[in-house]
Amino acid sequence: MQSKYFECKDLIGGYGGADILHGCSVAIDKNEIVVIVGPNGAGKSTAMKAMLGMLKIKSGSVSFMGNDITKLSTQLRINQGLSFVPQTNNVFTELTVRENLEIGAYIRKDDFEETIDQIYDLFPVLKDKQSQLAGELSGGQRQQVAVGRALMTKPSVLMLDEPTAGVSPIVMDELFERIIEIKKTGMAILIVEQNAKQALNIADYGYVLVNGQNKHFGTGKELLDSKEVRQSFLGG
Question: Among the listed ranges 38-42, 92-96, 128-132, 214-218, which one has the minimum average pLDDT value?
Fold first, then answer.
């Protein structure tokens, strides 16, 4: 079977004590949105951090474009094309919007003005507020800055940890619309999300994690249509 563009297999590990991940596996292709959902404490964010190399796993593997990157540092994975937006502390509040985006291009040696223009097209409010301190922005606008900064490296895989946490339903819908636009560029997008119904609505594929294991998986529609998934994780 042909390997996926980016995938992790049978991850086991935690933060030093008891394991949080108990063999979870996730795969994603180009031009695809994959969503990881599940109850609090299921290991969703931990799995994403393990994929990025921020958590040392006991066993399992991570591969990118057919190459094993399990032992690579986080920085080397970023250099190869991964980009990550954490849930909290994801902007430099004392810097302007423009300065935040420029910092996102730290690994690039070329002219990145075209990329900044593309981000302003994607998030017009950032262009309007480019000289404003990020700390003065609303929660939704900060998330746009965080995603924009992650896009400055021109990544192949964009990883978003709870991108809609703490924002209003209207802002959440707008963020998901922008994520769909990003997908159209051919990027692979992996999202850990608490707003399961809304996330699965835009997902090409989804995984429901429980106790660090794959409990359910399928297309976004299959998971939304599953009676067991609806009753257990989507409030009926």
Answer: 38-42
Model pLDDT for residues 192-233, shown as the tens digit of each residue: 998 899 999 999 999 999 999 999 999 999 999 999 998 888
DSSP letter, residue 16: S
The domain in which residue 206 lies consists of: 1-81+189-236
Alpha-helical (H) ranges within 53-165 are 74-80, 97-104, 113-122, 124-128, 139-151
Give the predicted TM-score (pTM) of the model: 0.93
The verdict on residue 71 lying in a domain is yes
Is residue 102, in this structure, part of any structural domain at all? no
Position 165 pLDDT exceeds 90: no
Query: How far, rounded to the nearest angstrom, does the alpha carbon of residue 138 sit from its chain's CA centroid?
Result: 20
Looking at the structure of the chain, the number of domains it has is 1
Instruction: Flag whether pLDDT at 135 surpasses 70.
Output: yes
- CA pair distance 62, 130, nearest whole angstrom: 37
Is 203 among the domain residues? Answer: yes
Bridge partners (DSSP) of residue 52 are none
Cα dihedral 116→117→118→122 (10° resolution): 100
Q: Which amino acid type is present at position 181?
A: E
CA 69, 74, 80, 83 torsion-angle sign: positive
Confidence of residue 41 (pLDDT cuts 50, 70, 90): confident
Round to whole Å and give the CA distance between 133 and 228.
Answer: 46
Q: Find the CATH number of the domain harbouring 29.
A: 3.40.50.300
Q: Which amino acid is at 88?
A: T
**CA–CA separation, 174 vs 213, rounded Å?**
31
The answer to whether residue 205 sits within a structural domain is yes
